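Notebook entry, structure prediction.
Reason for the run: the old model in the group folder had no record of what sequence produced it. Starting over properly, with the input documented here first.
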Amino acid sequence: MTNDFSKGKVWQNIVCQAIPLILAQLVQLLYNVVDRVYIGHLPGADSLALTGIGLVFPLTTLIAAFTNLFGTGGTPLFSIARGAGKEKSAEKILGNTFSLLLGTSFVTFLLCYFFRRPVLYLFGASDASYVYADAYLRIYLFGTSFSMLATGLNGFINAQGFPKTGMLTTLIGAVLNLILDPVFIFGLRMGVSGAALATVLSQAVSCAWVLRFLTGKKALLKIARENLRVDWKLAGQIAGLGMSGFIMQATNCLVQVVCNATLKVFGGDLYVGIMTVINSVREILSLPVSGLTSGSQPVLGYNYGARDYARVRQGIRFTAALGIVYTLAAWMIVVHSPHFLLSVFTEDAVMLEAGVSALHIYFYGFFFMAFQFTGQSSFTALGYSKHAVFFSLLRKAVIVAPLTVLLPRLGLGVDGVFWAEPISNAVGGLACFVTMYFALYRKLGREQGLDPERGQGLEQGQDREQGQGQEQKQEA
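New structure, fully documented this time:
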């Protein structure tokens, strides 16, 4: 592994970043997925336990949104600063991101904890499902700081060229969660509360690992005390770039709320539980393409900071092509094995029977997700925050949420809720990718620079004559 992303083949740099990151995200996903697997097989709970966990999703997604606001905002700025050789600025970005994550985690915990009852009923809870939702949430929220720091700061480890260490961040915690879950849920008979406790303890260990590395000797750039005081101008830049990730998760939260509320009206607790299972399947199947695009961001950002635009374009092409191939394969898996995917999370015969049709609808045209991920990550990696924010809002808030409300009332019934997703993937994904192609990819091609062997580009606003003049001075 090299810490200099300007060397070697671009696709190899991306793959070297993406593979450990995908494994790390897979392990991170185990925090919640393993909980759902065990909870879905709780004796005597039927589908209500899964329904209760589904009602918690919007709040856990909201926590992830605030994590993205600073984590996905700080990491690209950090990579660009590193690529430009501004290490002091990069360390200041890291220190400020830590402080912003920590402060926000306390506020988020207090608000979610003390208002959890009215919020859960607003999200579609019934008296029966609320029991399970509250039992999980009231413990899970105590891990808010651990979760936000571990997830939000882990990107800074990957951005320094240590993806294996970043992978271990979540691997350690997830393995611990995998061990503790059956102990607390079944051994100590804590049920849903045991799943939450196992998750909190595992997140605490992951958080300790991240902080130990970023304050230790191995890190190239560290969390330093002098950088912890928040520079509000810099905080605005971090939040501005992270707004895309925040809005993406916040609108996910909105969609989950709208889905649960609509499904409660048209399908009852059963379909809220089915949506919980489908969301779990979606998280698993979308993880590789999400990891690929996330892994490309440090490489794209570094080369953009170094003004090597040809390598940036190569990275975008590779990410898009591989993402499309994978999502096509994932769609075929859903088409041919829906019953197997659902049975991982539940043994309820009624839920399995109703869930197959819903799963087919929800994943129709899944490959369009690759266009959204590629366009979104390219905008974020290169600092095009306004574009990234716009397309986050477009797909979820402008397309999915309204369709989720309207389609069931236009005669599609409960199926209308599931059709909203593929429609948004096609319309929003293509709009994002096409805009990225014309507004960013082709623009970088026009700005490619002087050295055809390296593809060294010029800064925006700098013309070819100025670059040639600099070369002549160096030769002289």
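Summary: The two ends are 37 Å apart (CA to CA).
The old model has been moved to the deprecated folder.
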